[in-house]
Design brief:
The chain is of the alpha/beta class. It folds into 2 domains: about 5-35 and about 105-210, Rossmann fold (3-Layer(aba) Sandwich); about 35-100, no CATH class. The protein has 12 helices and 5 strands. Strands 3-4-2-1-5 form a 5-stranded parallel sheet.
Amino acid sequence: MIDPSLSLAVSIQGNPGVYALLLGSGVSRSSGVPTGWEIVAELIRMVAKLKGEECGDDPQGWYSTSFGRGPDYSEILNHIAKSPAERMQLLRRYFEPTDEERQEGRKLPTPAHRAIAELVAKGYFRVLITTNFDRLLESALADLGIQPVVISTPDAAKGALPLAHSRCTVVKLNGDYLDTRLKNTGDELARYEDAIERLLDQVFDEYGLVV
C-alpha cells in the first residue's frame, strides 16, 4: 500500500497550486511565540495583579469568578491598556524578538516556515491559511522575495486580489497581532464574519486542503 504522505507529495508535485495549506500554532510555537490562549492567560494574570490578587494555575476560572463571565480578549486588553497605541506596544513583546532573543534564534521563522516559503517560491502552494497572529510566515516569504497578499480582516477579504491572480495569499483567520480585533475567546471564535466565510467556502470548493 502506498504511504499517504508519498501519495500526497506526488499529487502536489503533479498539480502545483491546486492545494491550500492550513497551519496552526504548532508551526510557530517552537520559535518561542506563544499561542493565542497563552497570551490571554498572561494578560489575565496582569489583570489579577492590578487587582492585588493571584489567579494561580487557573486564570480563566479566576476571571470568570471575578467578572461573572468568560474572558473576552478586547475587554482584558482594556483593563490593562486604554489606548490602541498602548495595546500594540503590550502585544509586540509576545511576537517581536528582543536583541537577545534574536541572537538565540527565538521568535524568528522556523525551518518549517522556511520550507513552506520554498514550496511557495516553487509554485506548489499559492494559498496559505493560518490561525496564528504572528508574522513569521510573511517574514520567511519576504526573505525569498515574495510579498504575499495578507487577509486578516473582513475588509481585507473584500478588497483582496482574486486568489487565482495572486502569487501567494496568506489568510490569517484569527487576525494579526498588530490589530486589536484578534479572535481568542470562545464567543469570538464561534463564527467568522461573512466575508471571511465566503473566502473559506471558495478555498474549500476550489482547492485541496493540506492540514
